[in-house]
Design a protein that fits this description.
With 152 residues, the chain is mostly helical.
Length: 152
């Protein structure tokens, strides 16, 4: 044990956790808006999501560059944590590509050609459901990595 909650965490690390949870909550809120039929609110929420994710990435990278490693962990625990972190980063990169695809389909659905717009909206809805679940799982994996690295 490292002591109490956040005893080894820097202000940047706490910011990572708060921003990460905010991104998850924002995304789930946007999905809930879509499910409730509030399209304009959904579009506004989803347009704000990429900058929020970018802010999280900047804070994460700044934190990673300024803090030391997890020296208190044993070799096996360090290797397991590193494997989870690598998985989280790879899934984040894949999730970024998924996000771009979903956003493109959403923008196409807002286009002027009704036939293409309807097809794009169907693709957007299918991919958005998968992508939201993907990001939720990966976001929770990030929280798990944080807890293992800095709390447990």
């Amino acid at each position: 044990m490292n002591g109490g909650l956040f005893s080894r965490a820097s202000l940047l690390t706490e910011g990572e956790l708060v921003l990460g949870l905010l991104v998850i909550a924002w995304m789930m809120g946007g999905v809930a808006l879509a499910w409730s039929g509030r399209r304009a609110a959904h579009v506004a929420a989803m347009k704000a999501l990429p900058p929020l994710m970018a802010l999280f990435l900047v804070v994460f990278v700044a934190g990673a560059l300024t803090r030391g490693g997890v020296e208190a962990l044993g070799d096996g625990a360090r290797q397991a944590l590193l494997a989870l972190l690598i998985l989280h980063v790879v899934l984040s990169l894949a999730g970024g590509l998924l996000l771009v695809h979903v956003l493109r389909q959403g923008w196409r659905a807002a286009g002027s050609d009704p036939v293409r717009a309807a097809a794009a909206l169907g693709r957007h809805r299918r991919w958005a459901g998968f992508t939201a679940g993907f990001w939720l799982v990966n976001g929770l994996l990030g929280v798990l990595v944080f807890l293992l690295a800095y709390v447990v």
